[in-house]
Amino acid sequence: MQHRIIVLGAGYAGAIAAGRLARRLRPEDVAITLVNAEPDFVERVRLHQLATGQTLKPRPFTEMFRGTGVRVTVARVDSIDADRRLVTLDTGAELEYDTLVYALGSGWNSHGVPGTAEHADELASRPGALRLRARLAALPAGRPVLVVGGGLTGVEAATEIAESRADLKVALATSGELGDWLAPKGRAHLRRVFTGLGITVHEHATVDRVAAGHVVTANGEIESDVTVWTGGFAVHPIAAATTLEITSSGQIVVDETMRSVSHPDVYAVGDAAWAMGPGDKALRMSCASGTPAAWQAADAIAARLTGAKLPHVPIRYFNQCISLGRREGLIQYVTADDRAKPAALTGRLAALYKELICKGAAWTVANPLLGLPARRRPLSRPQTTEVKA
Hints:
Blueprint: E1 3-8, H1 12-24, E2 30-36, H2 47-51, H3 61-64, E3 70-74, E4 77-81, E5 86-89, E6 94-96, E7 99-102, E8 106-108, H4 116-119, E9 120-122, H5 126-137, E10 144-148, H6 152-164, E11 169-173, H7 184-197, E12 200-202, E13 207-211, E14 214-217, E15 220-223, E16 226-229, E17 233-235, E18 252-253, E19 266-268, E20 273-274, H8 287-306, E21 319-324, E22 328-334, E23 340-346, H9 347-366
Parallel strand pairs: 1-2, 1-7, 2-3, 7-19, 9-16, 10-11, 10-16, 11-12, 18-20
Antiparallel strand pairs: 4-5, 5-6, 8-17, 13-14, 14-15, 21-22, 22-23
Protein name: NAD(P)/FAD-dependent oxidoreductase
Domain FAD/NAD(P)-binding: 4-298
Enzyme class: oxidoreductase
């Protein structure tokens, strides 16, 4: 009997995990099913480009995984019974598994701020980016657009909008200082780019309420015809309804191989996982964390099933890649635990570097059997396991 592996979610982490498993295990030994709500891959790191009218290359999963042995199921996950090893889909189908890879990712996080659902747009999903795209396209010249959130997503969104629509009055509101996580060189470059693009920055401006036509902060109101909310991410709520051990944020607690500490037949990767990195710091929600986590989980699953040596490759950070429109960029070099180093790459070269990173990530997802030679090994023993009553 084949060992049944189900991968839930086909963002960067889930799609990479499924492809890597197909490279490591023989198709006659395992049945790999990839479940995703949409039929094609979404380049989440480019959603700010989609929102400003740019066209992204379509990447259907049926083409990406053709010939790999991975079966793609387009559906939403309704529930997971981690004790019975059962996934229920919105189609009514029930999928039993021997190993589960949970990669349902995250969406936008309003932090409970009143008015966000009614009056703000988000960039954490393709439907959100497309709605924002339509709103920006319909906005007359001279009207105000406010990006709330001074993190990576907010900075990229504000600069992309300002560059593509120089006729709009673009502003950014952040609870701290602009680029306060960057080293001095990176902060200085960021301010230069914002100034050059005519972006107004509201620092120490925590938004208390979003309304039609403006937002309310402790310092007063900020006018905004379109408010883009980029104030962080919240994980998919499915895990919180299971018996899996999770954190207060809803992330699944995993060990260094991305294996659930409460259910050894479950692995979590990407934003859904609470994994510790260098310096005993939790890995942040990002593609930079999700991709190596997917490698780690897939290789650990393959090793445990085939009796091979368990891999031990600590996940660490090297840089933060930030696009500032299509002509400018910022590469902030960081320590293994993600603290800014003095060095940074800026300007056009940084923009090209970021573009190369984005293209490389998408290529890895779209070509699961290419790259390093595949090493498919047979299973070491029968892999069926009794299901708890």
